[in-house]
Amino acid sequence: MTTLKKSKGKRTRENILLESRKILNETGVFLTLRELSKIIGITIGGITNYFPTKDHLFMGLAEVYEKELSAPEISESFKNDPSLYSMHTLLSNIMDIQFANRSTIRFISIASQSQKTLFEKVTETWNSRKERPIAMVEALVHKEFLLDSILDEFHLRVFRFQFINTLTTWISSYSLYDFDIPYNQMKPIYLAGMLNTFEPFLSPKGETQYREILKQLTENLEN
Q: pTM to 2 decimals?
């Protein structure tokens, strides 16, 4: 009986998160929990039983986001065969997940250090991921798609700043400036912007793949 109750409670919690994500993606992040509960069709207690505050709700949504980002199939192509092609696939996969979790990203982007629990969660996630771009660069250098000059400390730090910013802030740009344009129409532009951060360090081998990817993105935009 206890196991059944736990299982039912887990399913209810997951349903609240999925319904909340869908609603907040469309309405924005400023709904109160009471307003959210009315749209979902449950009592306010039905939410606060699992998420006492809005910060707790978004921490739960952040866990969903992290779980989806960490799914093996998201980065499998790049891990098995690092290249600009597989990097393009990886970034495309990440963007789709980010778009599905855009309300979570927006809420976190406006969080302050006074929201201690949420801020600690964000810091923990960042610390676990901040070296990944460097590992990807090293793999691309090893496969001779990038010049090893990118591994110079200054160049690497500048690259990481540009890459992480384009990868993590496009949602804000879309929400503020391009919200009236369908996501699939803007996606090729944002993808090109992310891949552009590699351009100064492309080897001839990398340049060939980069140009082919840009051609494909341009065709996708025109279609």
A: 0.88
